[in-house]
Structure formats: structure tokens, C-alpha cells
Design goal:
Distance between the termini: 45 Å
Shape: elongated
Largest sheet: 5 strands, parallel
CATH superfamily of the largest domain: SPOUT methyltransferase, trefoil knot domain
CATH class of the largest domain: Alpha Beta
Number of helices: 7
Strand content: 15-25%
Helix content: 25-40%
Structural class: alpha/beta
Length: about 250
């Protein structure tokens, strides 16, 4: 997967993209992440990327020229904003609090694209004419940050887990919270007893079927307690529904 990031603060990505799993994925050429400084596409001697808004008002607005030139440089052409265009073309994402909220389902859709372009806004936003080059606006929550860089980092980290080979054990991705509509089950490791707190006996049984049933029950229990809204849209089988009924009776 190739990801081009357009920003006026490329240095902000230095830590997150050079550590841990993301760094290893880049070293293995599984992720091709390229940072582009929007200022380098300006045409004035002061490298200004913003200007005063027409009609007055507070703050500044990012100018269209350097952004559109930067988009063109990474292979993006002007396009009517379509939600899911062909996967062989660059898919442009504008990190915006007005966008679709990032969740596991959206991340899975975005991971199908071979080339993503993440546009990070600043100030009061970008000139609206830039939106003709944007396919999708994405938000990481109903709050406002100083720019789109941190949301872009979150999105990159989220998408990386879907790229084959990035996560060492592929099955661990399938067990992630939200992957199957439910929250993850609790995890335990060595030692078996720590400060007199023991690992649940079910995990020590050696019976894989028994362990799987216990984990499914714990996943349902965690979802019921922490995010009951997810149960309304989760794909539950008859056994899940019966298990959930028993959990509610003992809660």
C-alpha cells in the first residue's frame, strides 16, 4: 500500500512512522509512506500556504494553489467526488471533523485501495475548491484538533493492520475489537499468579474448544457492559444469542 501525506508539518510524523510495527512494515516495503510538505509547492518567496477568508471572519484559510499542485504531483487528477472510485486510482482523504467517523468497517474499506493520499488541513480549513480533488472526508471523532496530522497518524496506524504481513500473526487482526462487531475478550500472560490474582482456570484447561467458548462469552460480556449499542448491529448466531441471554440473567 502506498500512502502519500500532504502536510505543512512533515516533521510531526517522524516518531510515529519510524518506530514499532510501522517502521518494520516500511523496512519490508509493505507500506510505502511518503511525506510531502505543501509549502514546497507555493510560488511566492515567503512560501505562504494560507490567506484571509473572503467575507471576513476569524482565522486564515489554506490556499488552493499549493494543495492542488501537491495533489497533482502525487498523481491525483481533478475529479467529481465519488465515494468509492476504482481502487487502481489514488483515493484522496481529507482529514476533517466534518467527515465520516473512522471505525473498523470504514478502515477495512479504505484498506482495499493500493494508493491513498491523506490531506492534512490547518487553520480554519482549506479553500472549498480543493474539495473537487477529494474523494472522502474522514474524522476520528466529534472534536476539533489543531490540524489533520494527528488524525492522519491514527488512520495510517489503523490501516496498516489490514496490510498482509504487517501484523506478524494475521489471526490477531481477526480478534481485534470491532473486527467481528464485538469488543475483544480479556487477555492474560505469564505468570499464572500475580499478587495472588490468578489467570482464569478456563484458559489453563488445554481444551481449545472450551477456551474458544469462554473467549466468545467474555467478548459478549464486555460488549454488553461497555458498548451495548454494538449488540444491535452485531452478526450474532443462535448460540451467541443464547449465551448473551444467560449473561444478562447473571449480570
Amino acid at each position: 500500500m502506498r500512502i502519500d501525506v500532504l502536510t505543512i508539518f512533515p516533521g510531526m510524523f517522524e516518531g510515529p512512522l519510524t518506530e514499532s510495527i510501522i517502521r518494520k512494515a516500511r523496512d519490508k516495503k509493505l507500506l510505502d509512506i511518503r511525506l510531502h510538505d505543501i509549502r514546497s509547492f507555493t510560488k511566492d518567496k515567503h512560501h505562504c500556504v494560507d490567506n484571509r477568508p473572503f467575507g471576513g471572519g476569524p482565522g486564515m484559510v489554506m490556499s488552493p494553489q499549493p494543495i492542488i499542485d501537491a495533489l497533482s504531483a502525487v498523481g491525483v487528477q481533478a475529479q467529481a467526488a465519488k465515494l468509492w472510485p476504482a481502487t487502481n486510482r489514488p483515493f484522496v482523504i481529507f482529514m476533517s471533523p466534518q467527515g465520516a467517523k473512522l471505525d473498523q468497517a470504514l478502515a477495512k474499506k479504505l484498506s482495499k485501495y493500493r494508493h491513498l493520499v491523506l490531506l492534512c488541513g490547518r487553520y480554519e480549513g482549506v479553500d472549498e475548491r480543493v474539495m473537487k480533488w477529494v474523494n472522502q472526508e474522514v474524522s476520528i471523532g466529534d472534536f476539533v484538533l489543531t490540524g489533520g496530522e494527528l488524525p492522519a497518524m491514527v488512520l495510517i496506524d489503523c490501516l496498516a493492520r489490514f496490510v498482509p504481513g504487517v501484523v506478524k500473526e494475521a489471526d490477531s487482526v481477526k480478534c481485534d475489537s470491532f473486527f467481528n462487531g464485538l469488543l475483544d475478550y480479556p487477555h492474560y500472560t505469564r505468570p499464572e499468579v500475580y499478587r495472588r490474582i490468578k489467570v482464569p482456570q478456563e484458559l489453563l484447561s488445554g481444551n481449545h474448544k472450551f477456551v474458544d467458548e469462554w473467549r466468545r462469552e467474555q467478548s459478549l460480556r464486555a460488549t454488553l457492559v461497555k458498548r451495548p449499542d454494538l449488540l444491535k448491529i452485531a452478526n450474532l448466531c443462535a448460540a451467541d444469542k443464547e449465551m448473551l441471554k444467560k449473561i444478562k440473567q447473571t449480570a
